[in-house]
Amino acid sequence: MYKKEDLKQFVFEKSLKFGDFVLASGRKAKYYLDGKQVTLDSRGAMMIGEGILELLLANGQLPAAVGGMSIGADPITAAVITMAGVRGYSDLKGFMVRKESKGHGTNQFVEGPVKLGDHVVIMEDVVTTGGSSLVAIERVESIGLIVDGVVAIIDRMEGGAKAFADRGYRFQSLLTIQDFGIDPPEI
Fold first, then answer.
1. Which of 2, 65, 103, 131 has the fewest C-beta atoms under 10 angstroms from its C-beta?
2. Which long-range CB contacts under 8 A does 5-9 form with residues at least 24 apart?
3. Phi-psi category of 55—alpha, beta or left, where left has phi over 0 and alpha has psi -120 to 50?
4. In what helix (H) or strand (E) does residue 87 lie, and over which residues does it extend?
5. Cα(112)–Cα(154) distance, rounded to whole angstroms?
6. Residue among 39, 94, 40, 41 at smallest CA distance from 63
């Protein structure tokens, strides 16, 4: 069973680093959350898969699929669909959104067993401004998928939640940066 305190401790030990960093959003930060240190660890993946599955179930109905921008969302997607299968929700599918199309084969941005009209939820490891998730949303909507929301492991509380809300998307996270005693910057 997922326990928020266990995930918080695991992220603190494996992922949270202090120093001077430049984030994917281009912003400078005094701390960095390396999500891959959690999502690519068997214990971390299990906690994340269980935690996100619980969030999705609490929303009332599972979407048809979960996924997001490769490569960050790929292990999260795998963890969630694996835990869904273990818990008997074997209809939940996964998908991946490429940063660039392959340039060969079907030349798609979105890969996976999804179809026109499917309701999906975008997965993300760490949300800052929400930029990469918004690109993923644009790409999945362009092929006729319906985005019900975005779920992240950690919200840095630097504008991502507002960016999603402004566009009408529900946003949830397992943790926020405040769970680690860090106040978000003034935006």
1. 103
2. 6/47, 7/44, 7/47, 7/48, 7/51, 7/174, 7/175, 8/175, 8/179, 8/180
3. alpha
4. none
5. 25
6. 94
Q: Mention every residue, 6+ apart, whose C-beta is less than 8 A from residue 90.
A: 84
For 89-107, how does the pLDDT look when each residue is reduced to its tens digit (9 = 90+)? 999 999 999 987 665 555 5
**123 vs 69: CA distance, rounded Å:** 8
User: Where are the strands (E) in the chain, listed by range?
Assistant: 16-22, 28-33, 65-69, 93-97, 110-111, 119-127, 146-155, 170-176
Count other C-beta atoms under 10 Å from residue 74's C-beta: 19
Q: Is the whole model's pTM more than 0.85, yes or no?
A: yes
Strand partners, 32: 17
* DSSP state letter for 114: -
Q: What are the two backbone dihedrals, phi and then psi, of residue 183, each rounded to the nearest 5 degrees?
A: -80, 140
Q: Among candidates 77, 50, 76, 72, which has minimal Cα distance to 128?
A: 72
* Tens-place pLDDT, residues 11-62: 999 999 999 998 877 888 889 999 999 999 999 999 999 999 999 999 888 9
